[in-house]
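pasting for ref
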Amino acid sequence: MSPAQRRPHLVSVPEPSPEVKASRRARESGGPEDTAFYACSCGYAFDAAVTTSVACPHCGTTQAW
């Protein structure tokens, strides 16, 4: 059989699991954002990066983690 007469061999690929799909979406979107919601004693509530030293943007009080 000549190369022009050959047909490509088709292989079926199984559908990835929902967990694999979710993992791919997370990687493609840049990964998770590490933020948390803080409520300061001054009454101000805000989202900020998760670190060991978060200060309230309103009054400057360090937030407990």
